[in-house]
Amino acid sequence: MKCLIESADYKTAKQLESIAMQCAMDVRVKVETKTTVRSKIQSNFITLQINVDEALGDSQSWCLACRLSCFCPAARISIIISAQSLFQQTAPQILNQQSDNKKAIRC
Asked: Are 82 and 51 within 8 A, CB to CB?
C-alpha cells in the first residue's frame, strides 16, 4: 500500500507522515510513504493507494483510513483503488464480448 501525503509545508508533511506510519503499525499494514510539499495548496491531503485485492479482501486499509481521519481531522483522507492490472488482464476478453454487448443493446 502506498500513502501519499501532500502539505503546504515540510514540518506538517513530516508530522502527517509520522502519524500515518504509527497508524499503519497499529492496524498491522505495511505502508510506503511519499511526501510532497506544495506551497499553494490550502489543505493537507493523505491518499492511500491500494489494489483491488486489498480493497475487497482486507479491511485493514479501511481501518487505516478511519484512524487517519481521527488523528488528522484537518486533513483530507482518501483511498484510491488501483485496478489497472485487472483491465490489462481482461482486455482480450472485453474485446471478444463487444459483439455480444451490442446484441444485448438492440433487444
From this structure: yes
In order of 85, 88, 105, the CA distances from 23 in angstroms are 28, 33, 48
Tell me the CATH number at 25. Answer: 3.30.429
pLDDT digits (tens, 9 = 90+) for 20-77: 999 999 999 899 999 999 988 889 999 999 888 777 776 888 899 999 999 999 999 9
Q: What is the pTM of this model?
A: 0.73
Could you list the residue range(s) of the whole structural domain that residue 12 is in? 2-106
The sign of the dihedral angle between the CA atoms of 61, 67, 71, 77 is positive
Pairing verdict, β 2-7 and 44-51: antiparallel
Helix (H) or strand (E) holding 44: strand 44-51
d(CA 17, CA 81): 20
Total domains present in the chain: 1
